[in-house]
Each structure stands twice: as structure tokens, then as C-alpha cells.
Specification:
Elements (H helix, E strand, L loop, with lengths): L2 H8 L11 E4 L4 E4 L4 H12 L5 H11 L17 H9 L6 E3 L5 E3 L8 H12 L17 E3 L6 E7 L5 E7 L13 E2 H14 L4 H48 L5 H23 L5 H24 L2 H11 E7 L2 E6 L14 H15 L23
């Protein structure tokens, strides 16, 4: 790599064309937000992060409803986003603020990130999760979410119409393409939703309990927020150490103490680590108000989730489940799953003293986890506050 190119990369400016949503500013030789497409591409990310919209549906929304077209060039007018192009965008770390070269080198970009590092990680989890729903004749609310506990295959939905004309939805183990058949019985969708309503009822917080938790945490979080500066100092020390490692590695290479292969592997590792540390330092420290907003949204969601699941649309039902749990496994028409934090902390059947344990465990999770609760329509739910921006 030429010295001039390397210096430009280290400043955050690549020598390749930026992806959709960004433009080259030829006057300043920098990358800026595309005033037309930036918000449209961000909308595509929001749909993906909701966990309920398939990539094909996202593509249709982006091109047909939002009217996305690539920037015109000398070879013709702008074109709609392709399916492969959408997947490439969702896999591109450039959107979270990193410039990654073909040889594996990674630098912190000088452009404005479209998403956070946590959102990017969440998107990769969604894209990489096995059993994602596929286009079908019917839209099944929980297609791709449920797996057989016996053989690990995904459960597929099917509709049965009785002689009376009533329609019932079932989920069965996907046996096609396999020599042996799975002995697990089919799971009626109604049985599954009834179980989840009961489970969600156990995490429902009474308004007075939610207020008590918020009051207790308001004192704790003020102290924790003051200590966050020490965390930033540790990141700064780690960044300084990475720079020292980089200089030491170069010295060893110049003296011939390491071979080319070892040098290149270690250099790429240090470069990637530095870029991610730079991103952490760029992220603003959450304020006390921001942390308290997170608490309000957690407790608010814990109050509204059962009602939202019971009365919501299939999309809302799926969003609720993906917010509170993962790895849904079916056996003998019962579903087991891994409850996610912080909702695993909430068990209204426990004794009153257990709420003190909740107050002790929540602060660490709230501060360290830059979480997102998906968008919901809470218009008819008076127990939940309106969504506010979370840092």
C-alpha cells in the first residue's frame, strides 16, 4: 500500500466509493451523508433491527414505498437496490463507522456512522440466525422462531381447515429431505400463545413496583454515572497500549525478529482493535437522565408486554417474544426458551425481598448494554410511556 493511501485511511477517508446512503464530496475529498438516500437506508436498517421484517420485504419497502434509487452516473440513471446489494449493505461495517479494506485492515472512518456498533452486532445476529422465515403461501407469525428440541430442525407452519370451516394453525417439525421422521407431535398455535401469555403474566410489573424500582435505581445510577469516566480512562489506556504494540511490532519487523506472515497477522489484529476502541471513545457517556429513561422503558415494557402479545398483531407478537427470549425449543407441545436480560430478573411470583436483588442487578446491565426495545404501537396501552431516544 502506498504511504499516501495509508495516511488517508488512518485519517478515516477510504479511496473506494462509499456505500448507499453516502456521497463523495470531491471538493473536500471527504464522505458526507447523501441528502436523499441516507434516511432511506437507515429506514432499511430499522426494519431489519425490528426482527419482524424479512429481507425481501425490506427490499420491497425500500424500492417501492420509499422510492430508493442509486445515484445517477455517466452510465445511466439511478437503479433500485438489488437483493444482493441489500445483503451487502447489512454486512458492511462502514455503516457503524469502520472502514475495512480487502486485505483485512480496519480503520475508524471519518464519516458519520448510520448505526451503532451494538445495532450492527444485532443485525448480524438476525441475519445469521438459522431458520429465518421464508416466503410462503401463508404468513405464519412464529415461522422460523420455533425449533424441535429433539432433532433441532425448524418448525414449519401449516393451516388445517375443519369440516365446519374453522381454520387452525399448527407448527410441525420440518422433515423434508431427511430419511428418518421426527416423533414430536404438532404444536397448535393456540397452545403456544396460551403458554406465552401465562409466562408473560409472571413478568408483569404492577405500577407501584415499577415506580419503586425506578426510585431505588435513581440513586444508584447517579453514583454509577459518575464512575463511568473511569471506564473511559481504561479504554484510553487500552488504546495507548495498542499504539505501543503497533510501534513495537514495527521495530521487531525492521530488525528482522518477526517474519512477514506474523507481522501482517499481528498488524491487522492491532489495527482492528484500535478502530473499535476509537469507536468506543467517540460514543458519548450516557447521562443520568438517559439511564433513567432506559429503566422506564424496561419497566414499562414489562407492564405492557402481556397485553400487547394478547391483543397485538402477529408482527407485534413476534417482536415481544424476540425481545424477552431466544432459542425457542418445542417438545411434547411445550416450549422452552432462554429468557433474556433484564426480563429474566422479573418474576412476580417471587417474594417481595427478591425485588431488592433486581435493583442490585439491573444497574450493571443498563449501563453496559446499549440495548434497544423495538418500535411498538402503544397507542392503546396507557401503562407504557412514549418512546424517547436512547443513547
Amino acid at each position: 500500500m502506498k504511504r499516501g493511501n495509508r495516511a488517508r485511511f488512518q485519517q478515516g477517508w477510504p479511496n473506494f466509493r462509499p456505500p448507499a446512503g453516502y456521497l463523495e464530496d470531491r471538493a473536500t475529498k471527504t464522505v458526507i451523508k447523501d441528502p436523499v438516500n441516507f434516511d432511506l437506508v437507515r429506514r432499511a436498517w430499522d426494519l431489519l433491527l425490528s426482527g419482524s421484517t424479512r429481507p425481501r420485504q425490506i427490499l420491497a419497502t425500500l424500492n417501492n414505498e420509499c422510492g430508493f434509487r442509486s445515484r445517477s452516473n455517466s452510465r445511466g440513471h439511478g437503479k433500485p437496490m438489488s437483493f444482493s446489494g441489500l445483503y451487502a449493505a447489512f454486512k458492511n461495517p462502514y455503516y457503524m463507522g469502520l472502514s475495512q479494506l480487502r486485505n483485512g485492515e480496519t480503520y475508524k472512518g471519518g464519516h458519520s456512522p448510520m448505526i451503532t456498533e451494538q445495532e450492527y452486532a444485532r443485525a448480524q445476529e438476525i441475519l445469521g440466525r438459522p431458520g429465518r422465515p421464508r416466503p410462503a403461501h401463508h404468513d405464519f407469525a412464529f415461522a422460523g422462531l420455533l425449533r424441535c428440541a429433539s432433532c433441532g430442525r425448524a418448525l414449519v407452519g401449516e393451516v388445517h381447515t375443519k369440516p365446519s370451516g374453522k381454520r387452525y394453525t399448527y407448527y410441525r417439525c420440518h422433515r423434508r429431505g431427511h430419511d428418518s421422521l421426527c416423533g414430536e407431535p404438532t404444536l397448535p398455535e393456540q397452545a403456544f400463545t396460551d403458554q406465552m401469555v401465562r409466562d408473560l403474566g409472571r413478568m408483569t410489573l404492577k405500577p407501584e413496583v415499577a415506580r419503586w424500582i425506578t426510585q431505588q435505581l435513581s440513586r444508584t445510577l447517579r453514583t454509577e454515572a459518575q464512575q463511568l469516566s473511569s471506564v473511559r480512562e481504561s479504554v484510553e489506556r487500552a488504546l495507548s497500549q495498542a499504539r505501543t504494540e503497533e510501534d513495537t511490532l514495527l521495530s521487531l519487523r525492521l530488525r528482522g525478529s518477526v517474519d512477514d506472515e506474523t507481522y501482517e497477522r499481528r498488524r491487522l489484529d492491532i489495527s482492528s482493535r484500535r478502530a473499535h476502541l476509537d469507536l468506543q471513545l467517540d460514543a458519548p457517556l450516557p447521562t443520568v437522565d438517559t439511564l433513567l429513561e432506559r429503566v422506564e422503558w424496561i419497566t414499562g415494557f414489562a407492564q405492557a408486554a402481556p397485553q400487547l402479545f394478547r391483543n397485538g398483531t402477529p408482527v407485534q407478537q413476534r417482536q415481544v417474544l424476540e425481545t424477552i427470549g431466544s432459542s425457542f425449543r418445542v417438545t411434547a407441545r411445550k416450549v422452552a426458551y432462554d429468557a433474556k436480560k433484564p426480563f429474566v430478573f422479573f418474576d412476580t411470583t417471587a417474594s417481595d425481598s427478591s425485588w431488592y436483588s433486581v435493583v442490585e442487578r439491573l444497574p450493571t446491565w443498563i449501563i453496559e448494554r446499549n440495548f434497544q426495545i423495538p418500535e411498538y404501537s402503544f397507542d392503546t396501552l396507557d401503562t407504557v410511556p412514549r418512546k424517547r431516544q436512547v443513547a
